[in-house]
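Design request, tokens follow.
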């Protein structure tokens, strides 16, 4: 697919880096789903801003370039486990050319705000 030409690196919970491709305008959640990346429990609400399982941690210089956080995203981020200053929800961040090659980290533990229990916790 000639549109599929941006690169995204996801650092998974076990420290492994999953390098994949993305299209301009595609959300990071869509990237994970389309490539069936093995990130346990990620995107449980399918991008409807109801779960916070798509929590990702960005590098500061990338974070500053992202689209602003909407109130709805902020409310859901507040419920995310292990929130950082550079945390965003992957379903609300879309790829752009100037984000090409970015690296995002998957938090070690996430909470699904819908069921108030931890998912994706690995031993
Ligand atoms: Fe549920 Fe992003 S996928 S809030």
């Amino acid at each position: 697919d000639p549109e599929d030409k941006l690169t995204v690196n996801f650092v998974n919970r076990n420290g492994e880096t999953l390098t994949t491709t993305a299209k301009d305008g595609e959300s990071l959640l869509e990237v994970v789903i389309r490539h069936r990346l093995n990130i346990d429990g990620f995107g449980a609400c399918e991008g409807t801003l109801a779960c916070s399982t798509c929590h990702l941690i960005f590098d500061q210089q990338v974070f500053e370039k992202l689209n602003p956080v909407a109130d709805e995203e902020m409310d859901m981020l507040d419920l995310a486990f292990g929130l950082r200053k550079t945390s965003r929800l992957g379903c609300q961040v879309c790829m752009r050319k100037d984000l090409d090659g970015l690296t995002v980290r998957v938090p070690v533990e996430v909470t699904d705000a819908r069921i108030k229990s931890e998912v994706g916790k690995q031993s």
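Comment from the thread starter after seeing the answer: thanks! The pocket of FE2/S2 (inorganic) cluster is lined by residues 29, 43-45, 47, 49-54, 76, 89, 91 (CB under 6 Å).
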